[in-house]
Amino acid sequence: MPAPVLYLSHGAPPLADDRRWTTELAGWSTELPTPTNVLVVSAHWEDAPTTLGSTTGAPLTYDFWGFPQRYYDVTYDAPPAPALADEVTRLLTGPGHAVHRDEARGLDHGAYVPLKELFPDADVPVLQMSMPTLDPRGLFELGRRLAPLRDAGTLIVGSGFTTHNLRWFDPRAGSDAVPPQASAEFDHWAREAVQAQDLDSLLDFLDKAPAAREAHPRTEHFAPLFVTLGAAYESGGLDNRSVIDGFWFGLSKRSWQFG
């Protein structure tokens, strides 16, 4: 069987302090086959042309500001994945599509924060790849071209947030506060659309989903889903299950497994 494909909501660095969410991620990990390596596409790296992160062990990218020092002391020394980088380059390189390397760029928090919970021993090689566009169809096609990696045991992970409007974030209300109506409506629509495998609606979500522009004032956190969908569609179909649901400071943390 091909390795599964994941889309997960990753949370900010304080995710590590949320016992419920970390327990959910750890439980998910026990259900996954041990991958050969992990290819992660994070909402926090947009770069064109497609760029691959360090294969030499660069330190983590702490791409956030104003947090207590302990969040900058976190480490995640997963082995690099140079062979995976070579294979991704082979699969994606073609007319009009180059692949660059950035050996100075370590994993950002969209990658290491959830991976630290899924694979706490940091014993699975990891490669991060940028999103060269936010266009859903362009990312879907990128995922389709990456699909053969699944047969070699690569776990493809899109890391974003099912709803992401930071104007809703209110620490005074607590992480389990009732979500804004727009967040709940979009989450419900996304659950239904993914369950129904309604690819056309998902690719056109800004016009099809309720409250789409409130749930995603900018779409970079939903965008990794389309890489996930492309990889799943091309090599096994869109059979899926919603593994994690609920809200965190009003944001939907819904996460799916395909295959």
Q: How would you describe what is shown here?
A:
α4 packs across α9. The radius of gyration is 17 Å and the shape is globular. The longest helix has 15 residues, at 181-195. It has helices at 19-31, 82-92, 109-118, 136-146, 181-195, 199-203, 205-208, 212-215, 224-234, and strands spanning 5-9, 37-46, 50-52, 99-101, 126-131, 154-160, 240-244, 247-248, 251-252, 255-258. The chain is built from nine helices and ten strands. Helices cover 32% and strands 18% of the residues. The chain has 259 residues and is an alpha/beta fold. The mean pLDDT is 96. The termini are close together. α2 links the parallel β3 and β4.
* Overall number of strands: 10
Reported for the largest beta sheet, the result is:
6 strands, mixed
Instruction: Please report the distance between the alpha carbons of the first and last residues.
Output: 9 Å
Uncertain stretches of 5 or more adjacent residues: none
Q: Give the count of helical stretches.
A: 9
Note the quaternary state here: single chain
Q: Give the % helix.
A: 25-40%
Mean pLDDT over all positions: 96
H/E element sequence = EHEEHEHEHEHHHHHEEEE
Strand percentage lies at 15-25%
Q: So what's the overall shape?
A: globular
Which sequence of strands runs across the widest sheet? 5-2-6-1-10-7
Q: Radius of gyration in whole Å, from Cα?
A: 17 Å
Q: Structural class of the secondary structure composition?
A: alpha/beta
